[in-house]
Amino acid sequence: MSVIGTFNGKGAWVLRALCVCFVSVLILDVYFALNTEGTFRLSEERPALNYNLLARSLLAGQLHLQQDVHPGRLKEADPASPTLPYPYLFDAIIFNGKYYLQHLPFPALIHALYIALTGDNLPTGLVVVLASFGCVLWLSLILSRIRQAFFPDSPAWILWFVVLSFAFSSAQLYMVSRPVIYHEAVATGVFFALGGVAFCIWSLTDNNAKLGTLIVSGLLFGAAIASRAPTVFYPLCFMLCLAWHWVLQKRTAAEIVKQGVSFAAPVALFAGLLLFYNYGRFGDFFYAGLRHVSLPFPQVYEYCCVHGNYFRLAHVPQNLYHWLLAMPEFEFWGWFLTVPKASLMDGIIVNNVLVLREKVSSIFVMMPVIMLIFPVPALYMYAPRQVNLPPVLFGCAGCSLIVFGFFTTYYFACARFLYEFTPLLFVLVFYALVVLWEKARMTSWLRRGMLVMLSALMIANCIIGVAWGITGMLQ
Questions:
Q1: Cα(370)–Cα(413) distance, rounded to whole angstroms?
Q2: Per the count of CB atoms within 10 A, which of 18, 176, 326, 362 is most buried?
């Protein structure tokens, strides 16, 4: 019997590994199909900027791009203005007669390494797909660790349900659908941020975790910040959760300082390097060049660059409506649903406030599975708790809420921003499902009702996800 049991155990492990490989290949096939419009041939979207331009400049020992600003623009008082009759690089910064990339530089270092090793440009679409798929893997590891630490008896299908819900959500499929620098910046930043969260949660759930775990977490968070600025809220939020955890564990002041420095020092190092990067370009540690961005729409350029209205509290009401209440207008493209309305050119100014959104509607329509976070407060109040669980849940909820709040102050709502504040909400979805299933599984009608509800949510989530993916592909 022991031999058979051992064989069955090994066979089950092999079967699980094969399932994981099959699902991974399926997900990557879908991602590459959307990214390449079904051709599976990677190419750059022209005439858009890409990180290869900055990478080649860095390899040449300069921070500005190698492209020259049109001489006619250099004679004007405002060379970045889109109203001038001269060609220019869309969304580049024009400062002191040179072009600079407005996006943060860490992804360009990855491109520079690839160029130095191969001599060829690193395709933007390849990085978008691999970074986005990496986010799926990080979320899988985060959920697996939480399940192992707090809910070892929960059924594995709940973890699969949550991971696949994220993998085929509108946030994910829209992200992989566009091989452009905007999506690469977001995907890369979130990839490193989720990696930082994974190691941070390992430290929160293992009282014997080594300092190296915190150092790696800090390095990943630092790389995230150097890729995408809004990810700065991730390490700030989890630093508070770590401090909460250390107090609960009754660590000494010396231990708290030692662990805190191990986590914060790598983050501070990357932040400091970014300040020097700003100084090397603009002669100012705290100026990122936003007033000199060559935005292609005159109305947006005047509002943001001339008047400095990128971030305003006056944007909050309209953005809350866009993100929480606005409904999409679906239409068919071939056999597929798309989301054609609310493009970047549809913006209007009302009472001196720019009303602008791009492919955005209520997040609960875009990602129906997210509605499962609603019972979390009640479940948290009445479900049994473990001492290390609250910092994990509050860290994930806090990051999501703070980054969402940050984007409500921005001048427009854009579908790619969904990727920056929703991934960790799936941790709350997992928690809700585990607790709800524990209460429903012993009652047959509750169990069946819950399975029917989850099946409907998954189907709706995938259909709408594909609609946004097709929309991004056609954009």
A1: 18
A2: 176
Q: Which of 131, 124, 94, 107 is nearest to 55 (CA)?
A: 107
DSSP 105: S
**Cβ-proximal residues to 22 (8 Å cutoff; 6+ apart), any chain:** none
Q: Is residue 148 pLDDT above 60, yes or no?
A: yes
Measured CA angle at 207 (ends 203, 210), to 5 deg: 60
Kind and range of the H or E element at 203?
helix 181-205
Residue 129's pLDDT band, with cuts at 50, 70 and 90, is very high
Q: Cα–Cα distance between 264 and 274 in angstroms, integer? A: 15
Q: Could you identify the residue written with the tokens 């700003």?
A: 278
Query: Which DSSP category does 344 fall into?
Result: G
Give the whole-angstrom CA distance, residue 180 versus residue 171. Answer: 15
pLDDT (tens digit per residue) in 214-239: 999 999 999 999 999 999 999 999 99
CA atoms within 13 A on the CB side of 200: 33
CA 223 to chain centre: 13
The residues near 31 (Cβ < 8 Å, ≥ 6 apart) are 129, 132, 133, 173, 176
Residues 6+ apart with CB under 8 A from 190: 131, 135, 224, 228, 231, 419, 420, 423
Q: Where are the domains of the chain?
A: 27-48+118-474
What local confidence, expressed as pLDDT, does residue 345 receive?
57
**H-run or E-run covering 135:** helix 124-150
What DSSP character marks residue 229? Answer: G
- For strand 98-101 and strand 92-95, is the pairing parallel, antiparallel, or unpaired? antiparallel
**Looking at residue 262, what is its pLDDT?**
95
Instruction: Determine phi and psi for 101, rounding to 5 degrees.
Output: -85, 130
Distances (CA, A) of 180 to 270, 351, 357: 25, 33, 18
- Residue (of 68, 54, 55) closest to 97 by Cα position: 68
Backbone dihedral region for residue 350 (phi beyond 0: left; psi -120 to 50: alpha; all else: beta): beta
DSSP code per residue over 141-185 = HHHHHHHHHH-TTS-HHHHHHHHHHHHTSHHHHHHHT--SHHHHH
β 348-350/336-338 pair status = unpaired
464: its two tokens: 């709408």
> Based on the number of CB atoms within 10 Å of its own CB, is 411 exposed (0-12), middle (13-18) or buried (19 or more)?
buried
Three-class secondary structure of residue 204 per DSSP: helix
pLDDT digits (tens, 9 = 90+) for 299-358: 899 999 999 999 999 999 999 999 999 888 888 877 777 876 666 656 667 778 887 888
**Size (the chain), residues:** 475
